[in-house]
């Protein structure tokens, strides 16, 4: 039951943080790792770029795992506080801050990874990826 509440609250938080469909300026500028790796041959990634991107992806995945555990712990504590009668508003708000901090760090880690990937690509590779992304829509 707690996992359902956690999933529902997290889903609502993610949805509310997303810009309207088709208007995400970051998605138009940055490249997710799966896009880069799925088109590595087409864009001509060299071995040094592949090695760098893999290493950055592994670091980010490790951080994501840590943050997901932290977020789940914070959410469970928040749900527990919300079940109390009466609800202690100050404790709920303090716990909510912990949840939001974890969410912020997840977003920060995502953007950091994509910035590092983009910085490792040549302008020609970036242009080819933009074209490939547009063709797949």
Question: What is the structure about, briefly put?
Answer:
This protein is mainly α and 137 residues long. Helix content is 82%, strand content 0%.
Number of helices: 7
Query: What is the N-to-C succession of helices and strands?
Result: HHHHHHH
Total beta strands: 0
> Which structural class is indicated by helix and strand composition?
mainly alpha
User: What sort of overall outline do the alpha carbons produce when their principal axes are compared?
Assistant: elongated
List low-confidence stretches.
none
Distance separating the two termini: 37 Å
Average predicted local confidence, pLDDT = 87
Rg of Cα set: 19 Å
What does the main sheet amount to?
A: none
Features:
137 residues; mainly alpha
What does this entry look like structurally?
The two termini are 37 Å apart. Helix 1 (2-17) packs across helix 5 (47-83) and helix 5 (47-83) packs antiparallel against helix 6. Helix content is 82%, strand content 0%. It has 137 residues and is mainly alpha-helical.
